[in-house]
Each structure stands twice: as structure tokens, then as C-alpha cells.
Amino acid sequence: MSATAKAQRPSTVDADEIARFSALSKEWWNPTGKFRVLHKFNPVRLAYIRDHVATHFGRDPKSDTALKGLCFLDIGCGGGLISEPMARLGADVVAADASRTNIEVARIHAESSGVAVDYRETTAEVLAEAGERFDVVLNLEVIEHVADIGLFMQACCSMVKPGGLMFVATINRTMKAFGLAIVGAEYVLGWLPKGTHQWDKFVTPAEIEDAFAANGMRAVDRTGVFYNLLADEWRTSRDMDVNYMMLGEKPAKGDA
Fold first, then answer.
1. C-alpha dihedral (224, 173, 77, 68), degrees to nearest 10
2. What gap in Å lies between CA 110 and CA 107, rounded to an integer?
3. Which of 74, 73, 104, 76 is nearest to 12 (CA)?
């Protein structure tokens, strides 16, 4: 491919979003820092992923090696808050992010923790173009930050092996989400830096389902996630008006 063709390749990267998160990169592993909300969010995300993957692939979710032998992609991995726990459960993890500083921070933390994660400074479309394929693709809190959702989902879905899974976690485009995820979380409570999210880039569950269907996958599970103030923890819920997670499956070869 010529240099000109490479320069004109469609991209899902939003330069402003990458710059914003790169500037915060040193905060990733500080549980009381600017990403503390993700640290609080991690237990419910990890349990949802582990339990569904174990059920789908016939594993024991309580085993310390429940994910052994499975290939994972954590796209938009940030500092590796999900990548490392997946690797600790035995998964072979490729973790990708368009921010060099995020990848450098993630690599340093993984090395100091003795966890093997294949961190790469790259994008979903570049990985897909290279023919990468995975049993599980983790698409968590990233789709609302990309420049081209259609291209991004096309690339991510193409990397799911037949019979594999994709997890999407994002924020619904509702007025309730505007009030809680932007006004409340960023401006009132200060859980996230101001400007972290843009309401018009939030994604509805129907849009995720349509993207799955357009790329040979089907939604097989979904759940809302809410913050329980009294318990100081995130929990699953039937309410998907704000935060939610959705599980997509690519039919195995020969399945209808």
C-alpha cells in the first residue's frame, strides 16, 4: 500500500479524545484518582464477563484459570484495568489503544505486577486488516469515544471468531444519561474530568444491536448497570437508561 493510500485510510480515532485520555494516563492505576469510577466499576464488569465467558465456553467461573487458553482482545484498553484481570484468569490477552502514553503506562504496570499482556499501540481497523481473530473481544467504555462507530464496530466484529463473543459497555443516549453521566458525574460529583463525555456520542442499545446484526452477530444478553450510593458499589440492573452492557455472539460455522 502506498504512503498516500495509508494516509487516506478511514480511521476510528478521534484525536481530541486520544489527547484527553493521554493527558490523564498516569492516573489509570490510582484507585482514588481521576479514574476511580472505573476502579469502582471493575468488579461488576469483570463478573459479567467471566460468568458469561465461562458459561459459553463450558468453564468453571470460580476457577482461578477460568479463561485459560482463550484469546482476548481488549480494544481501547487504556491503562489495562480490564486486561490484567483477564490475563490473571488465564486468558491470552492482546490489549490495544491508540494512545502511546496509555500503552506505556499499561506495560510498566503489567511488568511490575508480573502479568503477561501483549500491549499494542494500534487501532481496531489496523488489527482487523492484519487478520487478527479472537475468542472474545472486549469493547468497554470506548465506543462512545471513537470517530466512526460503524467502522469501529465493523472492525471489532470481524475479529470475533465464529462461535466467539463480544462485550460492549457504554452509555445510552437519553436525557437521564445526560443528567447523571455528564452533569452529575462530571460537574456535580466530580467523578470524571469535565469533558470526558459528549452526549451526542452516546450509543443506544438498539444501535448496538443493529451494528451486531449488520456484521454477522446477534445480541444474546444485556444488562443495565447502576451505582448504589449506600453500598458504594456498581450493580447490574434492568434499567438501561444510563450505563449498560451488551453481549454479542457470532454464530459458529454451520449455525443458522
1. 30
2. 5
3. 76
- How far apart are the C-alpha atoms of 205 and 108, rounded to whole Å? 35
With H, G, I as helix, E, B as strand and everything else as coil, classify residue 114: coil
Q: How far apart are CA 233 and CA 224, in angstroms?
A: 14
What are the tens digits of pLDDT across the range 227-249? Answer: 888 888 899 999 999 999 999 99
**Distance (Å) of CA 38 to CA 169, 204, 219:** 12, 21, 24
- Measured distance CA(31)–CA(47) in Å, rounded: 19
**Model pLDDT for residues 179-223, shown as the tens digit of each residue:** 888 887 778 877 777 777 788 899 999 999 999 999 999 999 999
Strands 218-228 and 118-121 come out as unpaired
pTM of the predicted protein model: 0.87
With 0-12 CB in 10 A as exposed, 13-18 as middle and 19+ as buried, what is 182?
A: buried
